[in-house]
Amino acid sequence: MGARPGPVLAIRADIDGGVLSMVGLVRSATANPLDPNLGHQVIGYRYEEAASRVTLGVYDPNHPGDDGVTVGFDVGSGGELSLRQSTGEPLLGLLHLPWREARQPSTEA
What is the pTM of this model? Predict the structure, then answer.
């Protein structure tokens, strides 16, 4: 496949670098940013690529212990993207979310 969407390149770079990747999933199209059904976060830890398909293996806290949860997309012959999640939940968008490890405050005086 030719060009990859930007978030996929960043997620792939994280995983290739040995770092877990925080992935945002857009679940609904709404103008209300406080809608609790707007999105969800998962952690990407592996990926597979084929000619017109990218699949990310993710840890999804809504499905603890299920190592088979994936999200990904297919590229149609006209260049259109078709997003999917193996759990069947709606998926309208995919985001790479930067994060850093939280550090405990020092207790030394």
Answer: 0.79
Residue spans of the domains in the chain: they are 6-28+38-97
How far is 42 from 67, CA to CA, in rounded Å? 12
DSSP 8-state code for residue 43: E
What are the tens digits of pLDDT across the range 27-60?
A: 888 888 777 778 899 999 999 999 889 999 999 9
pLDDT single digits (tens) 73-98? 888 888 888 899 999 998 998 899 88
Ranges of beta strands (E only) in 1-109 are 21-26, 39-50, 53-59, 70-75, 81-85, 93-97
Residue in this structure with the two tokens 């939940």, named with its chain if needed: 89
Angle at 56 between CA 53 and CA 60, to 5 degrees: 140
107 three-state secondary structure = coil
**Distance linking the first and last C-alpha atoms of the chain:** 56
